[in-house]
């Protein structure tokens, strides 16, 4: 079910909105909150608005790598993957509208963080810290940003839609075999 014309580009509006929200929120944090400090503490220590920097990827994976290798792994590879996902969004016939939009949300989040890695001296700005009460061994979840949140939410939506589609396909096959 490939969309034609301008409608094929519509999911990229979500990508642009995510990039805009991500970059504006990071700009506000950088200009109003001192690095390493807690700006706001809400709901009995559940949610913090802070200013930290991450020179790696999620959970600070790769923080100890040489800078040249970080540039390749955390800028070049993601940019290639983002381009491939964009091509897939535009050309794929077998994905649903929800899957197309979820992929566009992942593209927006990915580009938000890649922009930080390319243009911010201290790399990615993270500012949302949530207390998770020992979940997976964490007292607080690793600090994240709007781009990270959009990647996670859209990836969950994508996985759920694929699983539901697979379940629906199995039911159709069973119905066909019984009929």
Structure description:
This protein has 179 residues and is mainly alpha-helical. It is built from four helices and three strands, in the order H-E-E-H-H-E-H. The protein has helices at 11-32, 67-91, 97-119, 146-178, and strands spanning 38-42, 47-54, 124-130. Strands 1-2-3 form a three-stranded antiparallel β-sheet. The mean pLDDT is 90.
SSE blueprint:
Elements (H helix, E strand, L loop, with lengths): L10 H22 L5 E5 L4 E8 L12 H25 L5 H23 L4 E7 L15 H33 L1
Helix pairs in contact: 1-3, 2-3, 3-4
Briefly characterize the structure.
With 179 residues, this protein is mainly alpha-helical. It is 58% helix and 11% strand.
Spell out the helices and strands N to C.
HEEHHEH
* Structural class computed from helices and strand pairing: mainly alpha
Write down the Rg: 19 Å
Share of helical residues: 55-70%
In the sheet with the most strands, the strands line up as 1-2-3
Task: Give the overall pLDDT as a whole number.
Answer: 90
The backbone outline, from C-alpha atoms, is globular
Uncertain regions spanning at least 5 consecutive residues: none
Strand percent estimate: 5-15%
């Amino acid at each position: 079910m490939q969309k034609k014309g301008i409608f094929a580009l519509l999911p990229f509006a979500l990508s642009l909105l995510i990039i805009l929200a991500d970059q504006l929120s990071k700009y506000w944090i950088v200009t109003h909150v001192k690095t390493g400090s807690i700006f706001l503490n809400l709901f009995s220590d559940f949610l913090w608005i802070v200013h930290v920097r991450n020179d790696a990827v999620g959970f600070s994976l790769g923080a100890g790598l040489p800078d040249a290798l970080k540039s390749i792994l955390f800028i070049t590879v993601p940019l290639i993957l983002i381009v491939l996902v964009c091509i897939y969004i535009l050309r794929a016939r077998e994905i649903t509208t929800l899957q197309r939009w979820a992929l566009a949300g992942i593209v927006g989040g990915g580009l938000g963080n890649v922009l930080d890695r390319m243009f911010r001296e201290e790399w990615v700005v993270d500012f949302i810290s949530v207390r998770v009460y020992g979940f997976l061994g964490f007292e607080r979840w690793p600090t994240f940003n709007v781009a990270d949140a959009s990647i996670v939410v859209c990836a969950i939506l994508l996985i759920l839609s694929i699983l539901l589609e697979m379940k629906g396909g199995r039911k159709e096959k069973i119905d066909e075999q019984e009929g």
